[in-house]
Prior knowledge:
Domain GH26: 28-362
Number of strands: 11
Pfam families: Glyco_hydro_26
Number of domains: 1
Signal peptide: 1-20
GO molecular function: hydrolase activity
Organism: Arcicella gelida
Strand content: 5-15%
Amino acid sequence: MQKLFVILLLCTVFVESTLAQIDAKATKETKRLYQSLAKISKKNILFGHQHATEYGHGWAGDENRSDVKSVTGSHPAVIGIDFSGLSGRPKEQIAKTAEALRKSVVDTYNRGGITTVAWHFSNPASGGGFYWKDSVSAASMALIKPRGSHHEKYKEILKTVADFAHSVKGKDGTLAPMIFRPYHEFDGDWFWWGKSHCSREDFISVWQFTVTYLRDSLDVHNFIYAFSPDCKFTTEQEFLERYPGDEWVDMLGMDNYADFGRNGKYNIELGVKKLKIVSDYAKKANRLAALTETGLESIPNPTWWTETLLKALKSEKMNLAYVLVWRNDVKSPTHFYAPFPEQVSVPDFLKFYEDAYTLFENDLKYIYRKKRFLFF
């Protein structure tokens, strides 16, 4: 059932705002999405799910399907994709992957939803994929930074990313905005760009070059750039230890599974403390904030959605644009983070869905277009 108050909220989104983006040439739709997210985060939160429409629990490639829609009647408001397939593979395979991703992004945009992009970037200088593997993986952040041995190769990879960004045109001919979230969970050691595998200076150098090259050299103007460590911090100083600066980031986030029930361990108070650090700094810096990844694998707790996640999100008067839970694997009977029909948490998830605070795709109106009137 549509939440009528949301239409009122989103019809008045485009009042002038001082919230700044780092790309002065951002497309109109990207600017309007940014302001919509700022407005939404003051009173509501968008629900997101990784790979929601690409595949789900026991299925893949079905038209206009998601597990969330099968349960609620609506897709998630935010749908996660991944640029992992845009490098480290034969050109023909990259082209096939790009076309599938393009359809996902364009379909989401045409429906009025939002896309966020993770980047499980295969190591450009060694084997090992995106994970760090001892005796296999190279410490490649130092190699892809300006004047590094693999810098030109990195530029070629970014050109592939830019080509994709230029390809996602909706039915009205405009480019779909995307929340681009590179080098996530950099404060851990599991990825080759992790804290133990590169210096603070090299991480910041690569981040700043990535934004500069995409935005200023390759004319990508439909990205909102999101900075998201894992949950290794407990103070603002620790959160910002590898922060490239306000002029290089549009959105601040956090990935946090550990405090919200992973391996049966809950520390909601600490999870909220960390989220508040993110939200508070975003307010100071005039930026957006989000819980960029979280979830409980297999969702064995039948009231996790309302008694754990929703209570945490509503506490402390935080301004969070969205919360995204991880993917539902096609084959695994246990690797899923959103419910599907008959899963044990479905009744509670429907309460989460009906709560006035949470917004799904069917609730969204005019997030990319300028509306100043109050009719519905």
